[in-house]
């Protein structure tokens, strides 16, 4: 049962449209967003850089979908009773994100830069979530910090290529997975993303539950880096083996 009355929940939502009333049942929009984020997280963690073009496509898709939600919620943030509007926002974000997916598909390198940007945002919000209202108390400072994180992570992907992409794909995937889980678990961890980026420091509170989610992010990042590295090594060995076989065949055919 919910321990938060509908009136109190609505007051929370009016003060900050992105705030999550803890220990309430998930709304339809939360379920859609949660499933979407969990799916993204699983792909970024367990597949990631193995399929380069697919990663670029999904990165572009995730970025544009997130930007659409950002614009919609800032234009007219729905209150808790407005379930249809919330669902419409999430569905439109998921649908319009396809535009970014197409761009990522045709511009592979640009798609990898987006992977770095997403990973930088996830890393920045993860760092900020170690303190109530953010590790950096200044609202301007928090936004600048997130922008710097995104820029630096994009540069890392450019410079280190495969290792950088693996690392930041894992970071974003781990963070998206935990945020998606929290859409159902309702610990308040989802506010670590929405509050710092949209309404800086207005609702996030550090608790033992959010610390557990922070630890879950670290564990998922480690798993993602290990899994992707193993898969990439196997892929490289397989490619080398196929090249050797082709070379042997050519030598046999040669008179």
Number of domains: 1
What's the total number of strands?
0
Uncertain segments are: 1-23
Our count of helices gives 9
The averaged pLDDT comes out at 79
Rg over CA atoms, rounded to whole Å, is 20 Å
Basic shape: globular
Task: Describe the 3D structure.
The protein has 255 residues and is an all-alpha fold. The chain has one domain (22-226). 77% of the residues lie in helices and 0% in strands. It is built from nine helices and no strands. Helix 2 (28-46) runs antiparallel to helix 7, helix 3 crosses helix 5 and helix 5 (108-128) crosses helix 7. The radius of gyration is 20 Å and the shape is globular. The model is unreliable at 1-23 (pLDDT under 50).
Features:
255 residues; mainly alpha; 9 helices; 77% helix; 0% strand; disordered N terminus
Write the layout of secondary structure elements.
Blueprint: H1 6-15, H2 28-46, H3 52-75, H4 83-106, H5 108-128, H6 139-160, H7 162-185, H8 191-197, H9 208-253
Helix pairs in contact: 2-4, 2-7, 3-4, 3-5, 4-5, 5-6, 5-7, 5-8, 6-7, 7-9
